[in-house]
Amino acid sequence: MTSGNGHVELMHFNRAPQRVVSLVPSVTDSLFQLGAGDSLVGVTDYCPVPMSATKPPSRVGGTRTVDTERVAALKPDLVIANQEENPKDAVEALEESGVQVWVTFPKSPYDALRILHTLTQLFRLPAAAIRIETLERTLDWTARSTPDRRPRVFCPIWFEEQSALGSWWMTFNADTYAGDLLRVCGGDNVFADRERCYPLGADLGAADPEVILLPSEPFAFGEGHVELVRKLLPESNAVRHDRVHRVDGRLITWHGTKMAQALAELPSYFNFGDDKDA
Q1: Could you report the per-residue pLDDT of 180-215, keeping only the tens digit for each?
Q2: Which fold has domain 2-142?
Q3: CA gap 113, 109 in Å, rounded
Q4: Eight-class DSSP state of 151
Q5: 152-269 maps to which CATH number?
Q6: Which residues make beta-bridge pairs with 246?
Q7: Ordered DSSP codes for 92-146
Q8: Which of 15, 63, 129, 232 is in Cβ range 3.0-4.6 Å of 120 for a Cys bridge?
């Protein structure tokens, strides 16, 4: 297994891989965006495939329910996986069948950039490499342009209601791609230092977020959840100042070329004047 935030062993490939399986939706999207989509012979059920694709890849199951036999039958030169999104036993089964697997695990936008740079090298995409260099400059500029005072932000990625716990929310801390992306874009994650990922209602009230982002994935937060937040946290700055926003979840969690859109849109949620009671 080749694991890391940036480098697959390029020396193993004397030419660009011709048969690739991507088990990571953001990587699949990036390969199509960078011009290497024709190399994909397999993707997950959640991976986007453009209607214009000349050779639509086979579907190999969900990100957590990968059909490893189907993947192996495609005889891939390389499988690209992710430590958080794909189960370890699926990766190990593919390796045991003789498939080379690159396991990615970016924990910051700069980690994601290293993966993108590696993709442009691996697939021999010099024009795309220039595009990624531009994205890197945009990331640097965004990181330097954040406001002096970062608003407190709560961004859940899952929600459930249970009789024993009531409403509970799953979120992320600073040691994640999503957490560091919010920081770069000017937000202060209220649960950045938290080790547990399931904050309860009491935690949210104490955190008093000034901005609440409800992403469309991996959990599809809807208007009903906006109303729920308003009822649960009526005295929070976010609710009182009407800063509870539904957002495209791919901007938060997709570590690939989608980052360009994230850097363009996310800072707007955090750049507002100081409120006298904030």
Answers
A1: 999 999 999 999 988 766 666 667 777 899 999 999
A2: Rossmann fold (3.40.50)
A3: 6
A4: P
A5: 3.40.50.1980
A6: 214
A7: HHHHHTT--EEEE---SHHHHHHHHHHHHHHTT-HHHHHHHHHHHHHHHHHHHT-
A8: 129
